[in-house]
Specification:
Elements (H helix, E strand, L loop, with lengths): L1 H46 L9 H11 L6 H9 L12 H8 L4 H16 L1 H14 L8 E3 H12 L4 H13 L5 E3 H13 L16 H17 L1
Antiparallel strand pairs: 1-2
Length: 232
């Protein structure tokens, strides 16, 4: 009986020790998380407005200046994607989860997090979402569903230029010289990304206009083939 009581006492002591250790760990972790969120909020309000809980374009430019990058840098668009920013040129308190995920509660840490963010965006599993987000982010008016050609050309160069330089350059050239389209919609935007990934360039041997391609890409391929024929 005494042996049983001893074992029971040891078991109870072990349970209590684990309980207090876990309680201490979670308490310390919770306090650290709260402190981190406070620093993230302080960083937000150092560029934003407390009354509107928003960082406006001027605040974003100041943030870019402090990170020593241009406000037109594609990494700012990547940052907006990570933060799930809904309105171009503005960050709201969705900033919290974005910076928490990046483990960045200072400007210095945010700047150091950009290379990893860029790697995340460039992964195939993330890039399609980022690419479609880039289009939606540029829809600045309510119920707007398309973007003007000049803006699309700039966006294509920014988002896809480093991956598909030749395709982007030729498509931009086509967009600037054609007169049938004044704007580009989401279906056409996503169609061009599919084209870059699936079609043999520049010979277009596997391009089949009978498949479900946006008409603008049929026209682009015809334009490319005519251009190549004239050069031969």
């Amino acid at each position: 009986m005494a042996e049983f009581s001893c074992h029971a006492a040891l078991r109870l002591s072990f349970i209590l020790f684990n309980y207090f250790c876990l309680n201490f760990f979670y308490s310390a972790s919770s306090k650290a998380s709260t402190k981190e969120m406070e620093r993230i909020d302080n960083l937000f309000y150092s560029y934003g407005n407390r009354s509107s809980s928003m960082i406006d374009p001027e605040g974003i430019e100041a943030l870019c200046s402090d990170m020593e990058i241009d406000h037109t840098d594609v990494r700012i668009l990547m940052l907006a994607w990570k933060m799930k920013a809904e309105k171009q040129g503005y960050f709201t308190l969705e900033w919290r989860q974005g910076l928490k995920a990046l483990r960045a509660d200072t400007v210095s840490k945010l700047k150091k997090a950009l290379p990893e963010l860029e790697k995340e965006v460039r992964r195939a599993s993330s890039f399609v979402d980022f690419y479609s987000y880039a289009f939606r982010y540029c829809l600045t008016e309510e119920k707007q569903k398309s973007i003007d050609i000049e803006s699309i050309c700039q966006l294509l160069d920014l988002v896809l230029g480093s991956q598909f330089r030749a395709q982007v350059d030729y498509f931009i050239d086509y967009l600037k010289t054609q007169s049938d389209y004044k704007v580009i919609n989401m279906d056409q935007w996503m169609g061009f990304y599919r084209y870059c990934n699936e079609i043999s360039f520049p010979d277009h041997k596997n391009y089949d206009p009978e498949l479900a391609w946006p008409l603008i890409l049929d026209n682009f391929v015809e334009w490319m083939r005519a251009k190549q024929a004239a050069q031969n």
